[in-house]
Amino acid sequence: xxxxxxxxxxxxxxxxxxxxxxxxxxxxxxxxxxxxxxxxxxxxxxxxxxxxxxxxxxxxxxxxxxxxxxxxxxxxxxxxxxxxxxxxxxxxxxxxxxxxxxxxxxxxxxxxxxxxxxxxxxxxxxxxxxxxxxxxxxxxxxxxxxxxxxxxxxxxxxxxxxxxxxxxxxxxxxxxxxxxxxxxxxxxxxxxxxxxxxxxxxxxxxxxxxxxxxxxxxxxxxxxxxxxxxxxxxxxxxxxxxxxxxxxxxxxxxxxxxxxxxxxxxxxxxxxxxxxxxxxxxxxxxxxxxxxxxxxxxxxxxxxxxxxxxxxxxxxxxxxxxxxxxxxxxxxxxxxxxxxxxxxxxxxxxxxxxxxxxxxxxxxxxxxxxxxxxxxxxxxxxxxxxxxxxxxxxxxxxxxxxxxxxxxxxxxxxxxxxxxxxxxxxxxxxxxxxxxxxxxxxxxxxxx
Length: 448
Ligand code: FEO
Known about the structure:
This protein is α/β, with parallel strands linked by helices.
């Protein structure tokens, strides 16, 4: 590529294709032909290996890639088991690629794509979601396959241009709710899914296979280990916590929008769900859809008590340890405790969606709520947590203010009941306050 061409020009050119380049005068057609071999991703010669691909069902292939090096998803959420960026190819009279991958795995992705296409042209790139973990390879796809049309919502095309300076006005097919695209044997129907998890999102349904390409919905954290299908693993035991943590933290804020899409999905004959992260579903779909319905409605999955505490020298922790013992003595079996300074908030957010009763205990710090607890409560506010019963306990050596402020934050949450009494300790629990903890334990059990 010519050295004088800046990145922006190159990306514009990438979208416009060689003809567009020549037309803009940035680069003459002859020069482009001469220098084509020097392009960093010339294609088949470079990516001639055997792709790590697997058939999903007739004509549909998985070309996604897992990343086990990444530490933080969205640079926020710890993912010790990595993550999979799913992408799919439909081979029909026309070929279609459904979404791409994160920039960290494009090398393997193009190897997979090249292997599956096996010399065929790519006719369509379907963009269900424009977040860069799925769209970072789009520019390169458009260069490699200059005849491919981009099928997406108008909103997606605008975001594509914002992120990657890709103007697809000359090769975009902008679809709306219910629009269809015929590939030969397969006809695809597009289902708008705004705010699941960005405004431009759509899903794609294939009438022949019953596959719903569901974008972020029904996804999960965790790299895939050969087993692409949820029925090939013990999903409930080994993966449900990751799926829950993914949903609650990534999509949890948008419960009403998820409910709206679930309602639309109920009208489709879905046989398989192909999300953009994690396992593909081809069995037991109803069970997982029901989980989504619960999460989207902010209904607790389990009758139990989550105790999240922030303790500086251990005295606040001691108070809630005693409370937990008292709950256990009263027959509560399902108790989960988290030290907010130790456990990443994303795990506690997931448990807050799971349990019906929540206890928040924190020391006062700088005249406010102990910082990690303050962050957790704001995080829960941001994720629209609702329909819970909650108790608070605070600690303060000379001015216990955290309890009042925690309750002010909790008051923002819809349909939540505060359980009395609110307990406030001064530095350390006193013998006289044991009866307060008994009263709180009784009240929690009575409300469960
Ligand atoms: Fe996996 Fe909203 O992107």
